[in-house]
User: Fold this.
Amino acid sequence: MSARPKGRRPGDSGTREAILDAARELFAEVGYDRASMRAVAARAGVDPALIHHYFGTKDRLLASALQLPVDPEVLLAGVADHPERAGAEIVRRGLMLWDGNPEARDRMVGLMRAALSHDQAAAAMRDLLAGSVLATLELVVRDETAPLRAGLIGTQLGGLMLGRYVLRIPAVAGASAESLVAAVGPAIQHYVTGAIVPADVDQPA
Amino acid sequence: MSARPKGRRPGDSGTREAILDAARELFAEVGYDRASMRAVAARAGVDPALIHHYFGTKDRLLASALQLPVDPEVLLAGVADHPERAGAEIVRRGLMLWDGNPEARDRMVGLMRAALSHDQAAAAMRDLLAGSVLATLELVVRDETAPLRAGLIGTQLGGLMLGRYVLRIPAVAGASAESLVAAVGPAIQHYVTGAIVPADVDQPA
Assistant:
């Protein structure tokens, strides 16, 4: 405990956060499967027994580490008050968060990386993306199309994050935030207020 | 060479394909960094020296393994002839390929997983996604907005693949292909023919 690196604060919540930070870094660097509890403890500068004390199993540590870096309901607060501009507003706030906060962006990318290699991480990300967007969207759309609308907004936001920060597609990575708001906003707006058929209805081709 | 598993055909192209199949499987299962040349050789049932013979370095093996499972120009042939339905048509063909061909889908997902953990894979995927969509799109749009349009189509298609096959967001994974064509088509159509500001122009907020 005395060899805690990076000047982290002592005390219960400081130790817990140090473990979570170390876990997120290691999950992002080497993947969930290769990040041992021992390595997480070493990076956090704590005794491995403390990880068991705070989190129990590695799966529970993963679940705790996969929390979103920002509360989606705070991020999207008020968006539902102006449904006709919701598309642009959702894109603007997402880009403000990611462009302005490299740490938040890296955590989202780490979450996505974990989701691609680990079913439990995929489940966590599914719940976060769809559930949080869904909660905001249900303030606008209250019919049976809401889950598909929220899911499709999640796919476009996730894809935009991938394209801008991970794949770095030149035209997407190099665009100003406002030109992306103008370009992507109408697509998201379609998912918010456009004509959408409920997902469970089979349409003839 | 005599212990070749899975009944693969002998001869030069059979051996090369066996190595590529083994590499793709291992990259998908354990990631690029952990997939040793020796393990690839063992899975392919060939001598490790043959991998060096065909591909030289591990990086060149990765580049070869990351080829798209289908030629995008074949997949999108004729789409540009009807620009007004291009959005729905692009979504329909993508879903036909992925829904109907689990192997092609797994290779795309493996490519995405590699892209999230390895810069060279990200570069390969960036070129494939943006470049191939761009080639088709430039048959429709010939101005300076084409790269941003193509990039945004790539983000929505990539996000849709993630949401439907990896995260398995219930409303997105459970939707019929035709209801997704109806729902996502207009968003892609916006990127093909809608009002898009060139990416490099900074807009005041």
In short: The mean pLDDT of chain B is 81. Chain B touches chain A through 59 residues (CB under 8 Å).
